[in-house]
Amino acid sequence: MPNITRTNKALYLSAAAGVVVALAGGGALAASASADAPAAKHRVETFELVGKQTSAGEVDLGEPGVSVGDQRVVHEDLYRDGKKVGDHSAVCTFTQVSPAALQCLGTFALPEGQFAAQSLLHLPAPSSVDVSITGGSGAYRTAQGFIRTVPAGETERHFTIYLQR
After folding, report:
1. CA-CA distance, 152 to 50, in Å (whole number)?
2. Which pLDDT tens digit goes with each residue over 44-82?
3. How far apart are the first and last CA of the chain?
4. Is residue 117 a contact partner of residue 134, using CB atoms and an 8 Å limit?
5. N or C terminus of the chain: which is more exposed, having fewer CB within 10 Å?
């Protein structure tokens, strides 16, 4: 197993946080009909949000330094047009160290309900990552689709959500 320094661990986990944060949702959705399916059956909503990290931590399990099972935990406030519309929490777990791979799971709480998303992230991460929406509750109980996340600094992410329900 390679020797990964604490600095490299922080960089890896920071990249993982980008995927974690990608799982966002928000209010005042702008709906658009899907071109490849009847609008009545497959309504697709596309909207953009900004995630601003409010806390993050690392859980170092097993061997000191990066090892299988280590985790990155992140919480963010979600904004649309400068207004806070919800929050998001996620956990990324190292499933492999070299090359690095993390399983990321997140939950987004919004006024209309909650939805969950997940992704397997290989590091180094690309400039944008698509994360699958895996289900939800409330208004999102039949949620499907994906979220494209793009980093905008160390603690901010921009998201485009493609939600079908």
Report:
1. 9
2. 899 899 999 999 999 999 889 999 999 999 999 999 999
3. 43
4. yes
5. N
Nearest to 121 by CA among 150, 99, 152: 99
The CA dihedral of 43, 33, 156, 7, to the nearest 10 degrees, is: 70
Peptide bond into 126 cis (omega under 30): no
Whose tokens are 């990066």? That residue is 66
Give the separation between CA 105 and CA 149, rounded to whole angstroms. 14
The pTM (predicted TM-score) of the whole model is 0.75
Residue 140: strand, helix, or coil:
helix
Token pair belonging to 150: 């793009």
Place of tokens 């859980």: 59
The beta-strand segments (E) located in the chain are 31-33, 43-59, 71-80, 83-96, 101-110, 113-122, 129-136, 144-151, 156-164
